[in-house]
């Protein structure tokens, strides 16, 4: 009963080498709708049609970076970290202050940048009144920013769903404690399910993961999933084996 849109904002549309730009994460203006998807009026009509069906809307907010060659990079160079690409993905400082695959990294610790990002979020909260925001690339932005941002979202009655890409339950629990999120995606369960149902590992893997639900403030605040746009789709992960796919989905939807 909830529709989560991929980013619908003004964005780069040209391919880079073999990489297409259809996904929406190369944003250029968070306040404008990408014309390929339609107009502001079309988006509002979508929201109204969801209301008629008793459905909710979740918008995808991209707050870590902007797209390649975005005018903002030259217009406001002081808004960005200029440290080059992440070289050590285990270095917590690089994760936050370096570029993810060359995407210009916003300096969210600066008040002007914070106000820009919060202002864009508040704009959509007012215009569309979505149920929540899916917050991209959580681990690439400081918890100080997230704590401040999620607190401000609560004033807008917006549910903060964070994408903290971490298969370790302790990392997810830390995200709840230090980031202030209402929900986080259950990456630990995703990796356990695919290991067991697609790759043939023992079900003890699932038991070990679910036993660590005790680390979370409330495990019901986790959002479970079988695949997403950053990962192999389930049919690929399970090599097209219908029985394995069915078993994984049965477990996820019943557990």
Uncertain spans, ≥5 residues at pLDDT below 50? none
Rg computed from alpha carbons, rounded to a whole number of angstroms: 19 Å
As a percent range, the share of helical residues equals 40-55%
| Secondary-structure content class | alpha/beta
Order of H and E elements: EEEHEHEHEHEHEHEHHEHH
Counting H and I runs of at least 4 residues, what is the number of helices? 10
Strand-residue fraction? 5-15%
The counted number of beta strands is: 10
Mean pLDDT across residues: 95
- Terminal CA distance reads 19 Å
Please describe the biggest sheet, giving its number of strands, its sense, and whether it closes into a barrel: 6 strands, parallel
Shape: globular
Strands ordered across the widest β-sheet: 1-4-7-8-9-10
Which keywords apply here?
255 residues, six-stranded parallel sheet, 10 helices, 10 strands, 40% helix
Topology overview:
Blueprint: E1 2-4, E2 9-11, E3 27-33, H1 40-52, E4 56-61, H2 71-75, E5 80-81, H3 92-97, E6 105-106, H4 111-128, E7 132-135, H5 143-155, E8 159-162, H6 169-179, E9 183-185, H7 187-198, H8 204-211, E10 222-223, H9 234-237, H10 242-254
Parallel strand pairs: 1-4, 4-7, 7-8, 8-9, 9-10
Antiparallel strand pairs: 2-3, 5-6
């Amino acid at each position: 009963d909830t529709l989560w849109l991929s980013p619908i904002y003004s964005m780069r549309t040209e391919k880079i080498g073999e990489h297409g730009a259809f996904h929406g994460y190369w944003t250029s203006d968070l306040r404008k709708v990408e014309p390929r998807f339609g107009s502001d009026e079309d988006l509002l009509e979508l929201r109204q049609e969801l209301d008629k069906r008793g459905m909710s809307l979740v918008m995808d907010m991209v707050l870590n970076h902007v797209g390649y060659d975005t005018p903002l990079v030259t217009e406001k160079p002081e808004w960005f970290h200029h440290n080059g690409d992440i070289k050590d993905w285990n270095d917590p400082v690089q994760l936050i202050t370096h570029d993810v695959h060359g995407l210009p990294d916003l300096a969210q610790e600066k008040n002007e940048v914070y106000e820009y990002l919060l202002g864009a979020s508040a704009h959509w909260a007012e215009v569309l009144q979505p149920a929540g925001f899916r917050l991209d690339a959580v681990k690439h932005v400081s918890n100080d920013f997230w704590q401040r941002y999620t607190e401000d979202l609560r004033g807008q009655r917006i549910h903060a769903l964070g994408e903290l890409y971490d298969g370790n339950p302790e990392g997810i629990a830390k995200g709840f404690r230090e980031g202030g999120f209402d929900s986080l995606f259950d990456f630990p369960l995703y990796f356990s399910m695919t290991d067991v149902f697609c790759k043939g590992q023992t079900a003890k893997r699932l038991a070990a993961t679910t036993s660590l639900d005790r680390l979370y403030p409330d495990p019901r605040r986790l959002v479970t999933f079988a695949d997403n746009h950053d990962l192999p789709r389930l049919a690929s992960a399970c090599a097209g084996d219908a029985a394995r796919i069915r078993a994984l989905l049965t477990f996820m939807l019943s557990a």
